[in-house]
Amino acid sequence: MLDNVKGDLQKDVSILIQKSGGLSEDKSTYLLYNDDFLPQKGKAYVFTAAVQPHGSLLVSGPNSNIEVKTDLLSKNNIQALSEENIVNELTKTERGCLKSSFFIT
Questions:
Q1: Cα–Cα distance between 56 and 69 in angstroms, integer?
Q2: 105 residues of the chain, pLDDT tens digit each
Q3: Furthest CA-CA distance within the chain
Q4: Which terminus has fewer CB within 10 Å in the chain: N or C?
């Protein structure tokens, strides 16, 4: 994780995410929601995650991972592009707030 747009997640650690779906019966295809995709290693993304009751982070569905095309060394550029993408591509929803096991304590 390079930076947080919202929330107090730990930085400079690997954070596990979960995707809804699975592997096909013949194990030849990953099954995901329509318009969802698996992030690729070495690229930067803005993730919209839903905290699950047991504290894990679910990143699943359309616009759940938005690729950020910028220099990885420029955290300020990533922050600005991340906020712009979120405003332009996502709709805010009201829901209860759960706490991830990755939040800073």
A1: 27
A2: 777 777 788 887 888 889 999 999 999 999 999 889 999 888 888 888 888 998 899 999 888 888 877 654 455 555 555 555 555 655 444 555 666 777 766
A3: 44
A4: C
CB 68 within 8 A of CB 75: no
SS3 state of residue 38: coil
Tokens of 87: 């405003």
Q: What SS3 class is residue 77?
A: helix
Report the predicted TM-score, pTM, of the whole model to 2 decimal places: 0.61
What does the block give as tokens for 38?
């698996």
Burial class (CB in 10 A: 0-12, 13-18, 19+), 58: middle
| Spatial CA neighbour of 48 closest among 33, 63, 69 | 63
Taking the C-alpha atoms of residue 90 and residue 27, their distance in angstroms, rounded to an integer, is 32
Q: Where are the alpha helices (DSSP H) in 1-105?
A: 75-89
pLDDT score at 91: 47
